[in-house]
Design a protein that fits this description.
Blueprint: E1 2-4, E2 7-9, H1 11-17, E3 27-28, E4 32-36, E5 43-52, E6 56-65, E7 68-77, E8 80-87, E9 91-97, H2 99-111, E10 124-127, E11 133-140, E12 143-151, E13 157-166, E14 174-188, E15 191-202, E16 209-216, E17 220-221
Antiparallel strand pairs: 1-2, 3-17, 4-5, 4-16, 5-6, 6-7, 7-8, 8-9, 10-11, 11-12, 12-13, 13-14, 14-15, 15-16
């Protein structure tokens, strides 16, 4: 662990950031590719995201059901969250906003800060009981979200856990354990970030349910 202006940050942060200046906080990955399992059907997708830690994100994706494209986005901007998806960009499939969507999106923003390690000084860092882990607390729209990062012996980021707001498997909105497993990292313009990952919820009544897989194929920092 190393100290910086009274805030603790993991050695992994320095390893990930390299020599890139801390002002590089925006993440532009065109595109990412992966799969979503919203219910019992797995959908392949490609996506582009703009991400600014502690501020917001816009994730725009295209998936397909048969030959039909489904276009849409998830966002957290100006302190509010929204999801909007349409078949062919015209026929509505899903459109949600409000407190629950906003709170879930705020948790997502805190978790995805791992893609912009140069923004880590914005978080408050604390030691974990496990020496191979550390915790980052982010203030998002006036609320705190804490993320536990798991670090490998080689210094690589292996995964994260957090109590994120959501409604997995229709269990009802609340805080549930949300886990991300990182299978590989990759270096883009001098910054090392997760490149292959899997994510899922754990409701307590069922085993961990993976619903998301992705590979980051490009990233740009500004």
């Amino acid at each position: 662990m190393s100290a910086n202006n009274g805030k603790h940050s993991p050695m992994w942060a320095a390893r990930a950031s390299g020599s890139t200046p801390p002002s590089s906080r925006a993440f532009y990955p065109p595109p990412a590719a992966g799969s979503l399992t919203p219910s019992t059907t797995t959908l392949a997708f490609t996506a582009t995201q703009i991400l600014v830690p502690a501020s917001g994100f816009i994730w725009a994706a295209t998936a397909k059901v048969g030959a039909l494209p489904i276009l849409g986005f998830d966002r957290f901007t100006d302190g509010s969250g929204e999801m909007r998806w349409r078949i062919g960009g015209v026929v509505p499939v899903n459109s949600e906003r409000g407190r629950d969507v906003t709170e879930s999106a705020a948790g997502r923003l805190a978790g995805e800060a791992i893609f912009v390690p140069t923004g880590f000084p914005l978080a408050r860092w604390t030691a974990d009981l496990n020496e191979s882990a550390t915790q980052a607390t982010w203030t998002v729209a006036g609320h705190e979200e804490t993320v536990r990062l798991e670090i490998g012996e080689d210094g690589a980021l292996r995964g994260l856990q957090m109590q994120r707001w959501g409604n997995p498997d229709g269990q009802g909105f609340g805080r549930y354990r949300f886990t991300v497993t990182i299978d590989a990292e990759r270096r883009f313009t001098g910054i090392t970030i997760p490149a292959q990952l899997r994510a899922g919820w754990e409701t307590g009544s069922t085993s961990e349910s993976e619903f998301f897989r992705a590979e980051i194929t490009d990233a740009r920092f500004r």
